[in-house]
Amino acid sequence: MRKAAIVGVVGRTNAGKSTLVNRMVGEKVTIVSPVEQTTRNTIRGIVEDPRGQLVLLDTPGLHKAVGPLGKILNGMARASSAGVDILMVVFDAAHEPQLEDEGWMRRVAKECPEKCVFVLNKCDRAPFYETMFRDMWQEVAAAQLPNPPSWIRACGIKPGGCDELLAALFALAEEGPALFPEDIVTDYPRKLAIADVVREKLIQRLHDEVPHEVGVVVVDLGEQDRAWDVAVNIYVNRPSQKGIVIGPHGGNLKAVRMSAEPELSEMFGVRVRLELWVKVEPNWMKNNRLMAEMGYV
User: Fold this and answer.
1) DSSP string, 234-281
2) Closest CA to 296 of 60, 86, 19
3) What is the pLDDT confidence band of residue 30, given thresholds at 50, 70 and 90?
4) What's the pTM value of the predicted model, to 2 decimals?
5) Exposed, middle or buried: residue 151 (CB in 10 Å: 0-12, 13-18, 19+)?
6) The domain 3-175 belongs to what CATH superfamily?
7) Fewer beta carbons within 10 Å, N or C terminal of the chain?
């Protein structure tokens, strides 16, 4: 009998959760960036394997919340740890433990999930702070837990870097039927997936200038047999940010479009043509309609 499990992938922001999910799924299902708060939705990546099926819930990273969007993302991260079959807590062990890492450890010690895996990510780096994370856990969990977490080293950027992790997750999974059809890797809505790819390219282009204040919405998706025409609104808070996003002579938008279109075309198996518009919407993070269209509420 094959196995199946829902795995909540949690941890502080920038711990490498999305990279691990993409590596385990075998395809890109969630965007990756060194910028904090890159992942803003809970994304389900589906691992199909001879051993069974794992549904990985990639969540926003826990961070010091600033503004309404930050509070929403933290709420999503905390909620995703409830009701899963296996809790997978990812630590960036290439850096010393942070306050948010201790927070997840304390949550595990308090709630005592039946099945939990602590992942020491980025094991290809040096120095590697495994001892510091283990010592922190010993301080947090003074009493012996009935179901102590397993400790696994992993590296999401190297082939085979998640083999031990996958083996540990399947070992914890229960026998049961698949939760999704075998031929899909994610059930993430198309419009949100397209918006995420556009936002990823904006982050890569803008670096630290305005990425946290940029929102992306697919306002029209014309699905023809061989080509999709997609209209995308990019929201910023202030007129000065509009010029930064557009770039000199429209250079930033052109670069984003040229980078995103081939990736989306490969993702969906049709030619994707993007039309990008930048709009000023003061305090868009407080606009419930826009936040709903982006999948945050």
Assistant:
1) EEESSHHHHHHHH-GGGHHHHHHHHHHHHHHHHHHTSEEEEEEEEEE-
2) 60
3) low
4) 0.68
5) middle
6) P-loop containing nucleotide triphosphate hydrolases (3.40.50.300)
7) N
